Amino acid sequence: MSQTVDRALSILPLLAEGPADLGRVADRLGVHKSTALRLLRTLHEHGFVYRQSDQRYRLGARLIALAQEAMENLDVREIAHPHLVRLNEQCGHTVHLAVYEENEVLYIDKVESRYPVRMYSRIGKPVAITVAAVAKLLLADLPENERRAVVEKLDYPLYTARSTPHADGFLKELAKVREQGWATDLGGHEESINCVAAPIRGADGRVTAAMSVSAPNVVVTADELLTLLPLVRRTADAISGEYSGRTPVRHTDPVHHPEHRPEKDTV
């Protein structure tokens, strides 16, 4: 029975490449045509494959509908949260998860810093879209025409001397972020706060969410925070793999890194 299931499932990625006739299916599986036909008929009865008028088979509508439903019901926050907690345990700093919805970038999860210095960000609150590292990643992944349209409608408040001042500058920054695959906010929103961020991608390769690590200068310098970028990117890749179904869930003990201690407590 397990061999039959294995053979039937092997047909699906073949048909994902395009319609195939009975002979091609049998050759790919290494079985007689009669065996391949039985498998195709069973899949056809369940709506997973469809027989065309030219006698070739393609993926069925029910399979596509199930895949779409599964993607819509995936909760990136639920999948990401254990990873965010482990990252927080490793570095000690504030960790955020954000998504782009209806022209806003919103925090949907947050793990607080272990240090006395805390950030005032809140789950459900929009971020400063023209400076936040997570926002840069989410906007950078938009199709070019949509990205330009969004950017040109934004206001550009000068939170600090490092804030992005206008649309042209922001478009250039987004192009850089899109090319390098990560983003920073080094004092662009608050002079004393720095942030590094990495994208979380779905099965189609598009950026579904973005995660970041943030810390104030009194805890670590911007250069020290940037040394965590490989760890942040590995965490984002692990979430992406689990969210997209490319990699199985693995539970590993966190690798503890040397902690950065604050020079003094602030409020």
From TrEMBL:
<feature type="compositionally biased region" description="Basic and acidic residues">
    <location>
        <begin position="250"/>
        <end position="267"/>
    </location>
</feature>
<dbReference type="InterPro" id="IPR029016">
    <property type="entry name" value="GAF-like_dom_sf"/>
</dbReference>
<dbReference type="InterPro" id="IPR014757">
    <property type="entry name" value="Tscrpt_reg_IclR_C"/>
</dbReference>
<dbReference type="InterPro" id="IPR005471">
    <property type="entry name" value="Tscrpt_reg_IclR_N"/>
</dbReference>
<dbReference type="Pfam" id="PF01614">
    <property type="entry name" value="IclR_C"/>
</dbReference>
<dbReference type="Pfam" id="PF09339">
    <property type="entry name" value="HTH_IclR"/>
</dbReference>
<dbReference type="InterPro" id="IPR036388">
    <property type="entry name" value="WH-like_DNA-bd_sf"/>
</dbReference>
<feature type="region of interest" description="Disordered">
    <location>
        <begin position="242"/>
        <end position="267"/>
    </location>
</feature>
<dbReference type="InterPro" id="IPR050707">
    <property type="entry name" value="HTH_MetabolicPath_Reg"/>
</dbReference>
<feature type="domain" description="IclR-ED">
    <location>
        <begin position="62"/>
        <end position="245"/>
    </location>
</feature>
<keyword id="KW-0805">Transcription regulation</keyword>
<protein>
    <submittedName>
        <fullName>IclR family transcriptional regulator</fullName>
    </submittedName>
</protein>
<keyword id="KW-0238">DNA-binding</keyword>
<keyword id="KW-0804">Transcription</keyword>
<feature type="domain" description="HTH iclR-type">
    <location>
        <begin position="2"/>
        <end position="61"/>
    </location>
</feature>
<dbReference type="InterPro" id="IPR036390">
    <property type="entry name" value="WH_DNA-bd_sf"/>
</dbReference>
